[in-house]
Amino acid sequence: MLRVENLVSGYGRIVALKGVSLHINRGEIVTLIGANGSGKSTLLGTLAGLIRPRSGHVHLKDREVTRHRPEKLVRQGVALVPEGRQLFAPMSVHDNLILGAYTRRGDTSEDMENVLALFPDLKDRLGQAAGTLSGGQQQMVAIGRALMSRPSLLLLDEPSMGLAPRISQEIFQALRGLASAECSILLVEQNAHLALAAADRGYVLETGQIVLEGDCETLRHNRDVQRAYLGRGYQEAWEE
Amino acid sequence: MILDQRIESADRSSIRQTQLERLQATLNRAYRNVALYRERFDKAGILPGEVRHLEDLAALPCTTREDLLGHQPYGLFAVALRDTVRLHPAAGAGGPVVVGYTRNDIEVWARMAARALASAGVTENDVIQISLDYALNAAGMGAQSGAERLGASVIPSSGLAPKRQAQVMKNYRATALIATPSQALHLGRFLRHEERASLSLKFALIVGQVWSDPLREEIEKLLGVRAFGSYGLSEMAVPGLATECEHHSGLHLSEDNVLAETLDPETGKPTTPGELGELVLTTLTREAVPLIRYRTGDLTILHDEPCACGRTFLRMEPTHERADDIVIVDGARVSPRQVQEIISDILPNAVCALKVPSEEEVEGELEIRVQIESSRFEDEVRHLEMLREHIKAHVLEHLGLQAIVRLVEPPRKSR
Hints:
The structure holds two protein chains of two kinds. Chain A has helices spanning 40-47, 70-75, 93-99, 109-118, 135-147, 165-178, 192-198, 216-221, 223-229, 234-239, and strands at residues 2-11, 14-24, 29-34, 55-60, 63-64, 78-81, 153-157, 184-188, 201-206, 209-215. Chain A is of the alpha/beta class. In chain A, the strands form two sheets. In chain A, strands 6-7-8-3-9-10 form a six-stranded mixed sheet, sandwiched between helices. The radius of gyration of chain A is 18 Å and the shape is globular. Chain B has two domains: 9-332, 3-Layer(aba) Sandwich (Rossmann fold); 335-408, GMP Synthetase, Chain A, domain 3. In chain B, 33% of the residues lie in helices and 22% in strands. Chain B is globular. Chains A and B meet through strand 1, strand 2 and strand 10 of A and helix 2 and helix 5 of B.
């Protein structure tokens, strides 16, 4: 589905990704965990075409898409749910969602129905300005907007950020239901507990390099992951 | 049966992608956490990030058993000692080296061993008797966790004489045996015809020494089972590193966990599949003790054509003669030089030769021939016998191996 080889990318003189290789199989949810500044968002930005990589290759469904522009990537099935949701606050929920289908031709009513079935909370608020919604609902609109383009690869940047635990749970449950043969998910998340519970596999990114890969069960049992991302064993780490 | 169909039968390009990702992660961790690797990579002028293809690995220096010996006990650990859950001293040339395992390492190993058993046809309904020595060889624990992972029932039966071994086998209706070749052969020779007929045994998974077709036929005939071989290396996870399937067309390497190369023993240049070379292995999922380009000293040929069983992992031929004079005993590698050093405590300047005992000899795992001066044979037999026992005890103490010691005269110089 997605295959990334030796991706080097960054901003200006800063090299944030130093040769990252990863892959996502069809229908998989893959999570990327890492501390602040490890390069997670750079990776998503590069995959979405917002940042041009310096070197490396990105293959989507066996086609090279390495330096494609963002709008072209959306047409090829890549949709980004950006960090902080980035909705058009004064516009209605309905219009925000419809914008997600901008690159597509034809009828979008079925997609709208699917989004509303996934997030029934939005049903009664279609006419409301997006900026007036709660954080959780805004996140639902952001994910819904990405889904309107019928992505085969959904990129999510910190979907749980600023949300109450119960709401995060709800959104992650929806994500689990979303992953299918048609849609694979790359999930970047600070909350490693949530991410490792929702995903199939994961990669651990440290200062722009992958240091661990494995299924979520394996990563949960890795002591470094426990100490750094799951908040377990701090006392032991201190005493070391 | 193929236990992990999706992984073991993946197409080659996705195997290579997984290998590249895991190799890069392993190199990054090794560089950050193990001083030896950091120094070596820096000296070679190559950073982990510069390994962009599997082939780039050839630019990195190899690791040898001497490196392990030189950094005992924990110098090559990539995790803190308290993050390991098990330590296995791996016997072999130069003395034992300790290999640590994290909880995940044990999990991965169990999975590899379970795959090996499944590929031999063992299922959750089998009762598996493991006669391997759990202390001498890590393969015992490996086989045990693999069998349990598969859901089979395990009878640990190390250290039992053939008679007791056969009794246990009969009474508890064991259907599979995991043993070294010599254990399997001893048991087979011990069994009388009617006893063999009363057993429920169906499979034997052979671990440890060098594997060959004649050996398989012999074990199959003696025990009335289907026998499956494996490749073992005490520093790596055994069994499961490489094992046979029902087609007996070489040993399938567990390529999602280990990257195999073969090198020309003369030039050290990589050889391609189909060509003979020294097997060099890099661990891809090991957390505690990652080994990068570890030289096994074993000569083999790799095959990359898919096997009739459907597995797509590389197959290695049972190992050919070794690149050196090392003898493999229960997965441990023993060199004459090392034995010589041990014996020189008793007999300075002794010359000795090693061989794996012939199949008729039951009392030991390793045969050592020690040359002594002709004049000593004029001694009383009692003295010679004492010398022999002394050497034997000394070898057991230092190598942990039951040896057959033979005292021989130096060869006469021919004119």
